[in-house]
Amino acid sequence: MTGREYRCNCCGKTLAVKNGILQEDALIIKKEWGYFSHKDLEIHELVLCEECYDRWVAQLMVPIRIKQKNEVMDS
Q1: Quick one: which of 1, 42, 45 has its CA closest to 21?
Q2: 11 CB contacts (<8 Å, ≥6 apart)?
Q3: Phi and psi dihedrals of 52, rounded to 5?
């Protein structure tokens, strides 16, 4: 993440980064499209701040699955 700027693709908000570490959580999606799409071999990346993520998932026809974690482990 060093030297990278993160901006929400929906609202344009610049997300805080300090010493190369994202200081607020966001949804970051990276999709490498395959041969059975109309985007063969393209790589798309999307960043949504938490507020825009909440608005987006509220519009979905099928609700997302949410699980709770009991602890956070470093990997």
Answers
A1: 1
A2: 49, 51, 52
A3: -70, -35
CB count within 10 Å of CB 48 equals 21
**pTM for the structure as a whole:** 0.78
pLDDT tens-place string over residues 1-35: 446 889 999 999 999 999 888 999 999 999 999 98
CA 8 to chain centre: 9
Q: pLDDT tens, 30-58?
A: 999 998 899 999 999 999 999 999 999 99
Q: Quote the tokens at residue 46.
A: 């999307």
CB within 8 A of 51, min separation 6: which ones? Answer: 11
- Say which DSSP state 25 is in: -
The rounded Cα 5 to chain-centroid distance in angstroms is 14
